[in-house]
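W.,

You were right to be curious about this one. When I first looked at the sequence I had no strong expectations either way, so I just let the prediction run and decided to look at it fresh. Below is the sequence, 284 residues in total, followed by the output.
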Amino acid sequence: MTGYAALRREIGQVALAVELKSVNSRFLDIQFRLPEELRPVEPALRELLTSAMSRGKVECRMAIESVAGAAPRLAINETLLAALAQADRKIREALPEAQPLRVGEVLHWPGVLANDEAGAEALHEESTALVKAAVAEFAATRAREGDKLKAMILERIERMHTRLAQLQSHVPDAIAAYQEKLAARLREVLATSDEERIRHEIALFGVKIDIAEELSRLGAHLDEVRRVLAAGGAAGKRLDFLMQELNREANTLGSKSVSKELSDTSLDFKLLIEQMREQIQNIE
């Protein structure tokens, strides 16, 4: 499901910034946008995000920024400097005419100067802590969205339950009226007074148009949606499956319709189911 979180934390002379955002996806797809200094910590961050969510296309973007007004502090790599000095002495002992290393050359030697705004280890620790905090905020925003989606789905479920109760009381009269109409047509077509045969034909057709089983399954699926929503947790896949089952029963209901009211109810059911299904794609 969709979500967003952004945090920033100062560490000495620099600041770490993290941004988490996700869009809908049936599976979990995590992408990172990290500066080179934080590449070593990517596996730990991936494990952290994987443990916190199971669906969605997630992007984790981090940046290292300079703190406004902070003067950079430079540190000298003492070990490397000593090694360069020793190498310089040995070279000039072997080659007396060789020029000694100049200060500018030493300062430009790779690794002699280190920007000490934040050590690598401190950056890695702080980046992990910052992402943990962002995940907590991220989860809170998704939870608020989830509550809204839950309320919407429950409202649709209540509407379907109400229509289902109305339909159950209407079905016997609708079937009886249709059977009477069918009997009249059979008398005309068969041109016979064989009531036994007419009743037999009507009984066979009555079995085909009986929707009691569909109504029962619809009620059971609606109750299961309520139960899943009440249980909480990762429910997206289960709810998606239930929407498929509800839609199947609504289609069967429409195909067995013997009245306009049954047909209209089937169409209303499918509309409500589709509204729920679209939103359930946002649920983890």
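Here's what jumped out at me. The chain has a mean pLDDT of 81. And, maybe more interesting for your project: Residues 145-280 form one domain.

Coffee later to discuss?

I.
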